[in-house]
Amino acid sequence: MHCIVIGAGIGGLVSASLLAAKGNEVTLFEAGSLPGGKMSEIRLGDYRFDSGPSLFTMPFILDDVFKTCGKELSDYMSISPLEPLCRYIYPDGTRFDNFSDLSKTLEQIRSFSPEDEENYVRFLGKSAELYAKTAQAFLFNPLAEWSDFKTLNFKDLLSINAFATVSESVERAFISSYLKQFFKRFTTYNGSSPYKAPATLNVIPYVELAQGGFYVKGGLFQLAKAIEKLALDLGVSIQYNQPVQQIEVKNKKAIGVSISKNGDNRFVKADCVISNADSVYTYTKLLSDKHVKSADKKRFEALEPSCSGFVLQLGINRTYSLLKHHTIFFSSDYKKEFDEIFSERKPAEEPTIYIANTSFSEDGHAPQGHSNLFILVNAPYTHKHLSWNELKESYAEKIIQLLKANGLVDLEKHIISKNIITPDDFEKNYNTNRGSIYGLSSNSRYAAFLRPRNRSSYAKNLYLVGGGTHPGGGIPLVTLSAKHAVSLIERDFK
Ligand SMILES: Cc1cc2nc3c(=O)[nH]c(=O)nc-3n(C[C@H](O)[C@H](O)[C@H](O)COP(=O)(O)OP(=O)(O)OC[C@H]3O[C@@H](n4cnc5c(N)ncnc54)[C@H](O)[C@@H]3O)c2cc1C
């Protein structure tokens, strides 16, 4: 059978590899010139930066993909746990280094909010329970047809806290404002607001704090390179700079794709098509109105995207002892920040700032004694009243000033190279729905059910993978979306 995959993001590369490992002929068309999609990399002089993800969680999911393909992940890439997982810095200067070793974390908590030591342990226990109740039901299950729903344990589902928000449940669980802000932060791992998303998302801390956070040697982009190599080793034909124009459908079946380049149009036939392009973009742009009615297209456009991100990459000629591999500078008013991003849809006046500093862990990413700072703040998804071109330099300056005020002394005097990536760039460069970086938001308790499924209901033999599909955004869930799509293809073509 010949399968076409559209897009070389993580979802596309994993599905192509799994399909090829099962003996199918696979052709992957990528609009850009690199593997990885949003998981990308840039080099500015002697500085190397990731341009997308910087934290790898749940590595066992990708490990299983390699094993299914008859390979070993460790032959393709090298990963290592990070300790501390992350350093958190609060506006009053309080520091919290968080470790996956519980005793080390509790020692830290004792120093700034001893009243919450037991609450921390209790909350992590609850988070582990949530994982046990939800992971099999919502993550490892394609939820595509009735037989998949039969495996859900409805008694469990009544106790997953879907009716409170993350913020409400965290407010109840902790006394100290430090730990409240800390636990609210995990909702941003899928681009949502803790003040809107259901408390079921309190499962995320368990994934990082108990299962661990990992770094990929050479930078996270090496993960994309590793899966690209896996796909190539299994015989996938990867064709870069080949933007798919349309998914062709005949008699309600996907029959291939058309590619238009430099005025040349060509049709490539396939038995099945897997789209790793953003799900909203796939339904509204790659399928004609004949196959997805305009009312349905409007319904897809109405799904709320996850937040976007504003990225500042700075090569600087010094190190700061304040910075670990991952460091977060919290804002002083978290609620205001999320209201600005998700309700007012404007850049936060005083954003929480995340810095990944891979030169802390590995040589060669910056000259000796220098640092490569990947600085990310959450930003609203794009809309026509927000022009990042006009705003980007002043917003970058604001971030630099905030970092200076929080301990990165004289930062602007040490900048050797600088690059900015805005929400508009994420939208334009990868065809992502309004520049969202994780796909669709989880800002409602129904979001998990509204997310497009991995098997399309608009055309037979059409499947969707990636952050905008079930089960959601982030490297592990996108990998699962690809596993689901391939298992559905196996069911359908048995
Ligand atoms: C700044 C940032 C930080 C992040 N941090 C983390 C993190 O720390 N940890 C984590 O787990 N996740 C993180 N994420 C999220 C993670 O990167 C994404 O969820 C994941 O990489 C998305 O993969 P995907 O398969 O959905 O494809 P995408 O990366 O969206 O790739 C889709 C591909 O399809 C191609 N395409 C689109 N249209 C066409 C077309 N018409 N024809 C051909 N090709 C097409 C695009 O060019 C692209 O290459 C972050 C993302 C960003 C941007």
Topology overview:
Layout: E1 2-6, H1 10-21, E2 25-29, E3 41-44, E4 47-50, H2 59-68, E5 79-81, E6 86-89, E7 95-98, H3 102-112, H4 117-139, H5 146-149, H6 154-157, H7 166-173, H8 177-184, H9 204-210, E8 214-216, H10 221-233, E9 237-239, E10 244-250, E11 253-261, E12 264-269, E13 272-275, H11 279-286, H12 294-301, E14 308-316, E15 326-329, H13 334-343, E16 353-357, E17 371-379, H14 388-405, E18 415-421, H15 423-430, H16 447-450, E19 462-464, H17 475-492
Parallel strand pairs: 1-2, 1-13, 2-9, 6-15, 13-19
Antiparallel strand pairs: 3-4, 5-8, 6-7, 10-11, 11-12, 14-17, 14-18, 15-16, 16-17
The structure holds flavin-adenine dinucleotide.
Mean pLDDT: 95
- What is the name of the CATH superfamily of the largest domain? FAD/NAD(P)-binding domain
β-strand percent reads 15-25%
Largest beta-sheet details: 7 strands, mixed
Number of separate strands = 19
In the CATH scheme, the class of the largest domain would be Alpha Beta
Radius of gyration: 22 Å
- Portion in helices: 25-40%
Ligand identities: flavin-adenine dinucleotide
Gross CATH architecture of the largest domain: 3-Layer(bba) Sandwich
Shape: globular
Q: What's the number of structural domains?
A: 3
Low-confidence stretches: none
Helical segment count:
17
Structural class: alpha/beta
What is the terminal separation in angstroms?
12 Å
- Spatial ordering of strands, largest sheet: 7-6-15-16-17-14-18
